[in-house]
Design a protein that fits this description.
Layout lengths: L1 H23 L11 E4 L3 E5 L4 H21 L8 E6 L2 H9 L13 E4 L2 E5 L10 H20 L5 H11 L6 H5 L14 H6 L2 H16 L1 H8 L5 H5 L3 H15 L1
Parallel strand pairs: 2-3, 3-5
Antiparallel strand pairs: 1-2, 4-5
Length: about 250
């Protein structure tokens, strides 16, 4: 009886392990079979057959901006950044966290950056709440994430997205700001992407980096973003003191 119970337990465990392996397989195959390639010294891009028009337009934008952004972030690594351009949101979601992602990926989601790579849908993909131009600009946003990872993989979620929106010139409009309260100091510490999006994090993270740049200068922003130094070291104030000053800035300017 014990032997049969043990066999049953082992079969269940083997089934669970198999499910986990199957569910996570797409994460390890970012480039689907048959994908084509465009490359230069800064960008190595893979795209689906039939998506050449969108791929060429994304590649042209990245060629134009990648060197400038790398210089702005003082990145000296010469390895090309890998960019994966998917035809559908589902293809993107699968490669972010496996099949389970299909159950909770937000309808507006169009891109991500993992371990210094860029993953995006094509600018011609139909996505609710997005246009061709917003997807194209979001590619620059994810490029900054990839660069940030190479410079400081421990950069906070708020800082990472602030730099990405700021350098991609995704300046928020008044409705983006007025529809959400200024994030609390605690909310600024979140690493949850859904929470970040729901609290208006993209708009306010832009405002945060804008404030730091205007108040302390870009060299100070880059000094902190590079890692290894505290707020006191770089800005001469605690993080909470900087946050309170920034809140005043947000009220005065918007």
């Amino acid at each position: 009886m014990k032997k049969e119970r043990r066999k049953k337990t082992m079969r269940i465990l083997a089934f669970i392990v198999a499910l986990v392996i199957i569910q996570t397989l797409p994460i390890f195959f970012l480039k689907p079979m048959g994908y084509e390639t465009m490359a230069d010294k800064n960008i190595e891009m893979y795209y689906a057959p039939g998506e050449q028009k969108g791929a060429e337009e994304v590649f042209e934008l990245l060629q134009l901006k990648s060197g400038e952004i790398k210089q702005k972030m003082n990145l000296e690594i010469n390895e090309p950044i890998q960019v994966y351009l998917y035809k559908t949101q589902n293809q993107l979601a699968l490669r972010e966290a496996g099949f389970i992602t299909l159950t909770f990926a937000p309808s507006w989601h169009i891109g991500d950056s993992h371990n210094g790579n860029v993953m995006m849908v094509s600018p011609y993909t139909k996505v609710k709440g997005h246009t061709y131009n917003s997807i194209l600009n979001a590619t620059l946003h994810e490029l900054v994430h990839a660069i940030n990872y190479r410079i400081n993989p421990k950069l906070s979620y708020f800082w990472d997205n602030g730099l990405a929106t700021y350098l991609a010139n995704q300046k928020p409009n008044e409705s983006d700001l007025s529809s959400h309260n200024i994030p609390t100091f605690k909310q600024m510490q979140t690493n949850n992407g859904l929470e970040f999006g729901n609290m208006g994090g993209y708009a306010y993270a832009y405002m945060y980096i804008e404030y730091l740049d205007e108040t302390y200068g870009w060299d100070k922003v880059l000094d902190y973003a590079s890692g290894g130094k505290s707020y006191e070291d770089v800005f001469g104030k605690s993080e909470l003191e900087v946050y309170n000053d920034w809140c005043d800035y947000c009220v005065e300017n918007h």
